[in-house]
């Protein structure tokens, strides 16, 4: 999955990904030259953690969490800082090398990996900590509030496309926060390739077109959202936004 994400990363950033792929391969080749695979899943998981967070020195970037360079995968590999999304993809690459079974689970707000051994092992790729189910629930509460409770839906394995969408969505949000609207638009359009009929993504794309002074296209995307989600509270705000854009366009012409 990381290699596919790197290809998308190259498309979105305009930076080639060959050196990143080569770096990953070199790290793994060097490790196999100096270590033998342990016997047993738990021992191999410890080897994986030691390789990624110990020998290679990756870590979650607490100090500059929202920086898009923590999500662009080539920059993560270069600087060895990441978010839960980018580090989860990195860990999944090495988990495949260690022949470990794992799943991304559907926890809102952050990525958590579940390693499927004789018992389930939950792993936070941002902090490099193994979590109890209680600690997984605390993460959920931190995102959704103290009344939230862990359910089967939160522990549902994410499908391949869902993982990619979560990573791309995190990247888009970071770029918008940095007022980098053109690259954010490229990410939005990549997201629409995964789910072309998503009205919320169309709404977000409309916002980005508006920031780039592409009023007619923004209006089209806003109208699509209003048609598909007429009862959403945002729909009324977008109707006002459309009238304003139409007036501005009429004034200019």
UniProtKB/TrEMBL annotation:
<protein>
    <submittedName>
        <fullName>Regulator of sirC expression with transglutaminase-like and TPR domain</fullName>
    </submittedName>
</protein>
<dbReference type="InterPro" id="IPR032698">
    <property type="entry name" value="SirB1_N"/>
</dbReference>
<dbReference type="Pfam" id="PF13369">
    <property type="entry name" value="Transglut_core2"/>
</dbReference>
<feature type="domain" description="Protein SirB1 N-terminal">
    <location>
        <begin position="39"/>
        <end position="168"/>
    </location>
</feature>
<dbReference type="Pfam" id="PF13371">
    <property type="entry name" value="TPR_9"/>
</dbReference>
<dbReference type="InterPro" id="IPR011990">
    <property type="entry name" value="TPR-like_helical_dom_sf"/>
</dbReference>
<comment type="similarity">
    <text>Belongs to the UPF0162 family.</text>
</comment>
């Amino acid at each position: 999955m990381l290699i596919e994400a790197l290809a998308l990363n190259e498309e979105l950033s305009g930076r080639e990904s060959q050196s990143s792929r080569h770096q990953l391969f070199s790290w793994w080749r060097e490790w196999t030259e100096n270590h033998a695979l342990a016997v047993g899943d738990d021992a191999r998981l410890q080897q994986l953690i030691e390789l990624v967070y110990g020998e290679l020195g990756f870590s979650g970037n607490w100090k500059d969490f929202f920086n898009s360079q923590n999500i662009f995968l080539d920059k993560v590999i270069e600087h060895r800082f990441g978010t839960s999304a980018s580090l989860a993809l990195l860990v999944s690459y090495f988990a495949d090398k260690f022949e470990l079974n794992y799943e991304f689970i559907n926890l809102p707000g952050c990525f958590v990996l579940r390693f499927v051994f004789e018992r389930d092992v939950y792993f936070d790729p941002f902090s490099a900590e193994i979590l109890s189910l209680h600690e997984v629930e605390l993460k959920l509460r931190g995102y959704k509030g103290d009344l939230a409770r862990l359910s089967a839906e939160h522990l549902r394995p994410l499908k391949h496309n869902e993982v990619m969408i979560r990573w791309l969505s995190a990247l888009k949000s970071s770029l918008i926060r940095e007022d980098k609207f053109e690259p954010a638009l490229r990410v939005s359009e990549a997201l629409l390739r995964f789910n072309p009929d998503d009205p919320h993504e169309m709404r977000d794309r409309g916002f980005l077109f508006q920031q780039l002074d592409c009023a007619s296209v923004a209006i089209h995307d806003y109208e699509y959202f209003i048609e598909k989600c007429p009862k959403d509270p945002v729909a009324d705000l977008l109707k006002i936004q459309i009238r304003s854009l139409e007036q501005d366009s009429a004034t200019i012409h």
